[in-house]
Amino acid sequence: MRIGTLLKTLFCVGIATAYPNFKDILPNGNEVPHPCKANYLWHGVGHNNPLGGGSRNQFGLDFKTAGLSWTPELCRKDSDGDGRTNGEELGDPECVWKTGSLPSRISDITHPGVCTLSDGSICDADKGWVDCQVEDGLKNCNVLKEPETLNRTIRFPETTVPAEETTYSCMIFNLPSDQDYHLMAYEPYIDNEMVMHHILIYGCDPNEDPVPDEQLNTVTKCGMSAASNCNQMIGLWAVGFPGYCIDGPMGFRIGQGGFKQAALEFHWNNPQLESNWKDSSGVTLYYTPKLRANDAGIMTTGQLNLEIPPVQQSYTVVGKCHSECSRKLIQGPINIFWATNHMHYLGHEMNIKVYRDGVYYTELTNDAIYNYDSPVEKKYSTAVQVLPGDEIVTTCKFKSLSRPKTTFYGDATSDEMCFGFLAFYPAANMPFSTCTAWKDISMCNLWLQQEHNDCKWVDFMFKNVNETKRVRDEVMANCKPFGNCLSECKATLEIPFCRTSMHERRRIRID
Question: What 8-state DSSP symbol labels residue 375?
Answer without folding.
Answer: P
